[in-house]
């Protein structure tokens, strides 16, 4: 089969011919319908060597945001029918530590506190078939189209997890700011809209197209990134700042902005892996403003994300690319030219 693989650090991935994996007992083979191209893959491709927390062996197949159809079942696997559409939970933990047993395989205690996940060391879904090590990682999609649904497993799940841990702050009159309205940001805006009724949602981005999309996705305001956004958010919140600031970029300027627009007792949540650092002292971020850097999300949360999509409360703007155009999809993502999510469709 064809697989889009990272062969060498700091080199563009290559489309290579590899054997179709055979599911061993307890495993499942998934025929890939869609594999989302995430900005994290660009960070991996641009890294000089294995990023911290990721498995290190090259080559491996990219793609940690996958959905498809059950192709074949290893011995002992029951409960799935062949051809059934499923989404793949991507944080593959040990399954037996305390965090894994609670569904938090994103924080597996036996894998350094952060599961490496597929497509980041394990072979991912940018191939015709994907080997999934255990049935618990597959969630039936029902009537959802797996070519459209793939981004729910990362862009959707990561945004959901980041919002859910701060939900208690988002009562009527509260403000939530999403910095970076790309793949993750657009999902997060819709999730905020679906989970909170009377919270003001503000999107901040450098790109006019993304700001327009953010408004369509449920933002109350969309502001160009910079000092004027800071002033506007201060004005909107009676100079107090926002209860929740989600930085989906994570570079120095966005982190600095986040610290200025978060309020006392608020949450400043760093989701973006842009490599910036946030200076912390007694007065900045504001007093008792918690800073967190959530990684991906939990299995139960992915089930909730699927429910939101089935209820048509969230959807991803998807642009499809065949496997042979995967490098082009990433180039467009790098250049900010993907409006929502690029999804590779190996069987289209
Ligand atoms: P994307 O490229 O689709 O979106 C990024 C958005 O940020 C774009 O809309 C871009 O215009 C905007 N942007 C860039 N510079 C900006 C600035 N200075 N101010 C405001 N907006 C700016 O990327 P994505 O796939 O949504 O990923 C976003 C980030 O989240 C990446 O760093 C990715 O690695 C990270 N990520 C983290 C997790 C996690 O578990 N924490 C999971 C997935 C992705
Ligand atoms: Zn990702």
TrEMBL record:
Keywords: Metal-binding, Oxidoreductase, Zinc. Residues 2-344 form the Enoyl reductase (ER) domain. The keyword Oxidoreductase applies. It is an enzyme of class 1 (oxidoreductase). Pfam families: ADH_N, ADH_zinc_N. The keyword Repressor does not apply. It catalyses: a primary alcohol + NAD(+) = an aldehyde + NADH + H(+); a secondary alcohol + NAD(+) = a ketone + NADH + H(+). Its EC number is 1.1.1.1. Coiled coil: none annotated. It comes from the Bacteria. Its cofactor is Zn(2+). Belongs to the zinc-containing alcohol dehydrogenase family. PANTHER family: ALCOHOL DEHYDROGENASE 1-RELATED, VACUOLAR PROTEIN SORTING-ASSOCIATED PROTEIN 11. This is alcohol dehydrogenase. It comes from Streptomyces albidocamelliae.
